[in-house]
Automatic annotation (TrEMBL):
The lineage of its organism: Bacteria, Pseudomonadati, Pseudomonadota, Betaproteobacteria, Rhodocyclales. Keywords: Amino-acid biosynthesis, Methionine biosynthesis, Pyridoxal phosphate, Transferase. The keyword Amino-acid biosynthesis applies. Catalyzes the formation of L-homocysteine from O-succinyl-L-homoserine (OSHS) and hydrogen sulfide. This is O-succinylhomoserine sulfhydrylase. It is an enzyme of class 2 (transferase). SUPFAM superfamilies: PLP-dependent transferases. It catalyses: O-succinyl-L-homoserine + hydrogen sulfide = L-homocysteine + succinate. NCBIfam families: O_suc_HS_sulf (TIGR01325), PRK08133.1 (NF006003). One of its GO terms (cellular component) is cytoplasm.
Length: 389
């Protein structure tokens, strides 16, 4: 897909106009839809006739968002959900059953680890966690009952990179689905389906919206898998609201422009951080010092907009840097045009055990910055206040 193709799809993909011929996409705030007669109602509910039925699982605004995102990711279909976590839940519950097994990276977002490692075992689905860059560990973890391989690349917050094509081969050799959480890159920077993944998962709350306004999630992939995910959503109901879908639909229009600008800011900030006293290490795929820099740039257009770094002095020093910020927002959300800063060990990964945090490399001195669109010089001044105190 060329840059021009992407930009046109981001603005016009999936748009359907009503008889009013509105220019901007319409927002359908309705819980249900009216039928011409009882026979049509029966045909709609059974699926014999196409058309909208009930907003838990069918709404024109949601359809437009789904179709646009599917086009941008290069997928056949998309199922939109109420949040990123409900997207992962819908994927697992829609495609798996008790007695089956997941292989996942141990650097997953904290809530993703808790879902797969803490909640799904109650339903008979076990997960083995492996290092993101260890292909032998992926191979060793696969079992005869492995149904899903789930990774996040780049990872949150250490920006570890998974070799998507290589892990796709491992998953497919085992007869398993391969899903990639593409939250950090979005289709503007990375296309996992083109590299061999079967499914892409999003927290649309993040960069797809882009301004920290609404919650949303999405699962994108081939039609057979999406049908299974849709069956779960239709019955269980972790659906996105039409209003949230409309906001995300509009956010997609500026996705590439935002991602490229925020990534450029992130590279500048990461490069500067590497030269500052009191910083033990900077984690950013766009830096040559990143151990997977080459792999990252072979499957991403650039390094992305997330920068993490470890300060000397543990939690006390990290909190001092965070608390000194006056421009950056102290919040665990990311993907906003406003730069955000957080201490992962006590926020996004705070509910994990100390052992799980250690396995994921989440130390007490680690800070994560989701770089926005402000002046990089202002962001540097913000950080310098805490680093020098």
């Amino acid at each position: 897909m060329t840059e021009a193709d992407f930009d046109t799809l981001a603005i016009r993909g999936g748009t359907e106009r009503t008889h009013f011929s509105e220019h901007s996409e319409a927002l359908f705030l309705t819980s249900s839809f009216v039928f011409d007669n009882a026979a049509q109602a029966a045909a709609r509910f059974s699926g014999e006739e196409e058309g909208y039925v009930y907003a838990r699982f069918s709404n024109p605004t949601v359809t437009m968002m789904q179709n646009r995102l599917a086009a941008l990711e290069g997928g056949e279909a998309c199922v939109a959900t109420s949040s990123g976590m409900s997207a992962i839940l819908s994927l697992v519950m829609g495609t798996m059953k008790a007695g089956e097994h997941v292989v996942a990276t141990n650097g997953l977002f904290g809530a993703s680890q808790q879902l797969l490692g803490g909640i799904m075992p109650k339903f008979g689905i076990e997960t083995t966690f492996v290092p993101a860059s260890d292909l032998d560990a992926f191979r060793a973890a696969v079992r005869p009952n492995t149904r899903l391989v789930f990774v996040e690349t780049p990872s949150n917050p250490l920006t570890e990179i998974v070799d998507i094509a290589a892990v796709a081969d491992i998953a497919h050799s085992a007869g398993a689905l391969f899903a990639v959480d593409n939250c950090f890159c979005t289709p503007a920077l990375q296309l996992p389906l083109a590299l061999g993944a079967d499914v892409v998962v999003h927290s649309a709350t993040k960069y797809l919206d882009g301004q920290g306004r609404v919650l949303g999630g999405a699962v994108v992939g081939g039609k057979p898998v999406m049908e299974e995910v849709f069956k779960f959503l239709r019955t269980a109901g972790p659906c996105i609201s039409p209003f949230n879908a409309w906001v995300i639909l509009k956010g997609l229009e500026t996705l590439r422009l935002r991602m490229e600008a925020q990534s450029a800011n992130a590279l500048a900030l990461a490069s500067w951080l590497e030269g500052q006293a009191g910083i033990r290490r900077v984690y950013y795929p766009g830096l040559e010092s990143h151990p997977q820099h080459g792999l990252a740039l072979s499957q991403q257009r650039c390094g992305g907009a997330i920068v993490s770094f470890e300060v000397e002095g543990g939690r006390e020093a990290a909190w001092r840097v965070v608390d000194a910020c006056r421009t950056m927002s102290i919040t665990a959300n990311l993907g906003d045009t406003r730069t955000t800063i957080t201490h992962p060990a006590s926020t996004t990964h705070g509910r994990l055990t100390a052992e799980a945090r250690a396995a994921a490399g989440i130390g007490e001195g680690l800070i994560r910055i989701a770089v926005g669109l402000e002046s990089v010089e202002d962001l540097k001044r913000d950080l310098m206040s805490g680093l020098q105190s």
